[in-house]
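Dear support,

We are seeing what looks like truncated structure output for some complexes. This example has four components. We would appreciate it if you could run it in full and send us the complete token output so we can diff it against ours.
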Amino acid sequence: MVFFTRCCLLIGVFAFGGGSVEHLHAAPPEPVVRVLVAYHSLTGHTHKMAKAVAEGARSIPGTIVNLQPVNAISAEQLFASDALIVGSPVYWGNMAGEVKAFFDKWQFQFGVFPEFKMRNKIGAAFATGGQRAGGKELTMITMLAAMLGNQMIVVSGGGAFGASATTEGDSPGLDEQELARARALGVRVAEVTWLMKQRHMVSKDSHTTK
Amino acid sequence: MVFFTRCCLLIGVFAFGGGSVEHLHAAPPEPVVRVLVAYHSLTGHTHKMAKAVAEGARSIPGTIVNLQPVNAISAEQLFASDALIVGSPVYWGNMAGEVKAFFDKWQFQFGVFPEFKMRNKIGAAFATGGQRAGGKELTMITMLAAMLGNQMIVVSGGGAFGASATTEGDSPGLDEQELARARALGVRVAEVTWLMKQRHMVSKDSHTTK
Amino acid sequence: MVFFTRCCLLIGVFAFGGGSVEHLHAAPPEPVVRVLVAYHSLTGHTHKMAKAVAEGARSIPGTIVNLQPVNAISAEQLFASDALIVGSPVYWGNMAGEVKAFFDKWQFQFGVFPEFKMRNKIGAAFATGGQRAGGKELTMITMLAAMLGNQMIVVSGGGAFGASATTEGDSPGLDEQELARARALGVRVAEVTWLMKQRHMVSKDSHTTK
Amino acid sequence: MVFFTRCCLLIGVFAFGGGSVEHLHAAPPEPVVRVLVAYHSLTGHTHKMAKAVAEGARSIPGTIVNLQPVNAISAEQLFASDALIVGSPVYWGNMAGEVKAFFDKWQFQFGVFPEFKMRNKIGAAFATGGQRAGGKELTMITMLAAMLGNQMIVVSGGGAFGASATTEGDSPGLDEQELARARALGVRVAEVTWLMKQRHMVSKDSHTTK
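Here is the complete output from our reference environment:
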């Protein structure tokens, strides 16, 4: 029964909506996926990672990427995105205060709650830190935790919890392997966002998460 | 271009596939979403929560729920699921050893790696614990972390990180509010899984995550 | 051999230092333990918890407690403390941005690194949040993680990871049980700090952590 | 007043207890600090790290180190230790099931609760994992969380949260830098344990944590 309704709806939208495939192609707006890459960077490392993340996301056709420092992001930019990837340097085993302030702003300035305006957007994280096992995991996990609290849908990519780079020690700065992981995160997020987004475009039915 | 192909495919499957809606309804296999609810329970509290989670998931039409103790789950059951919701009592701020052994089995017995056989399945968690702020969050977060490492797509529901219940103190056992959160988690996971699954059924194109 | 040296040292300080017990009592400076309770509070809940933590610490004789909002704390106040207890409301499963900025300041303004100026001080945490299992644990854990990165010595108290209060729901605001946990945290930190501090006063030998 | 009693006690034990330094040296039992290094190892990496941790602890005079696989440790061995350092390989972003089972045994077999028999013992952690940012931090943090729940006193060493090694990638197995970190953890734990332990030996007064 549910499936029946859904099929009808699909046909309503796609087949009966126009007389020809060409018309059909022209009628609906070109689908896009909007990925917002938000970062804070003092030394430039996290910015460089952010650019690689953006590059990865952009490599998926139809994906529009907005790359912004966290303090420049408006409520409109945030809520217009289909996916959000946040990157931070590690300060004391956690995201930078600037990035934390960005998340807090969602509540205090952007009015994300109680409507859960970020609900069902895709979320992911990346981090740079001076030391191995020096807080990059916790930094990514706490950013994902903030996203889960917003009812976002969370993925990893380029690593177990997201993409990360160790910027001191044997391999100072960012090496190609670390940038490749950042690009992989961008690709992963864009792909999962497409999986979700197209579904929304194709059919609106009772299963849609309320 | 991509969109064009996709539309054709949609029409191929749904509209041109048959002459009538009845036929159309009959033609493709009935879509289902399979949710596996895995739990460990000693006192029965987590089992009770698991049943409420299962009930919530089942309330979404077309959702088939399999409720199993972690030690009874086979590789086939695990890999056949579209979504996995794992529940554990809190033992020392973390999932029970039995639940940890279940995750470890994925690697050592089920051969999940290196193909990432759980990739793109939906994952979520719930927990029961004697005390408030006594480890339920960490228990859920560590289960979600295990899922992220498997490239699963992770959601919360019924709470910031999943559904949880405090089984001692002022309100011993499980109260209706806690069971309602467990049901909400089941609903949430089934809905997000539908979002992803239908997309797969409707269109297979170059955006599919490889 | 080591013990021999140590005993001699002890005798040097305590027995040979004066001719009588009265003199001995008068000679060394009265020992004190200094506990800094640092908090951020918007609604007043965390401030109220902080006052109960301070009260608990003060109940241990010889303990001097300094209660300050995070943004009012100077480097001198921080480094003069023997113990630090930090409290934060939960914003998105983590400490408030203001509290994160306080920790970041240690590095950027107070010059704690690379000497690890907080090394061997006792550290603990407390948190207030609207929901159960809504981030209080992660908030405390991430504050303790920041302390561990500073080579502080970390304890819980009043709960598995520190004292916490749920400020919404069935029991809005802070109830007596929650304030009792806050006081227990203060007592616990003062006691452990005495354990460490008196040892330092009594003997300085080769075992002292360098 | 408290200080007065304490000084008298010190003199009673150390100065008035004997007529000469030699006698004094002979009289009290030789002080020792007992460090238990507990590990699980499948490939041998974590065992090798454990041996380096033990070596570090042993380098502090008077420190007796017991190195044991987790499944071989008895309640007596556990409770007789002044400090416990636990090491685990990373399985899915968390300690191995075998290590989790060890912690769970404290409750179910060793009867640690409700007396909190591990209270005030020093605790620390180390981890080995195949990937960078692949779970070593979470593995250490969750072991420290289990210790905090037991009212242990927790330290880092050899890294922000403990000592860790990345066993795959550019530098397979354990390199000298990683083993040096493991030794540093052992040194750190032995030193902090001495700080606490000597204090207990020197004076028993009202400040002792109950």
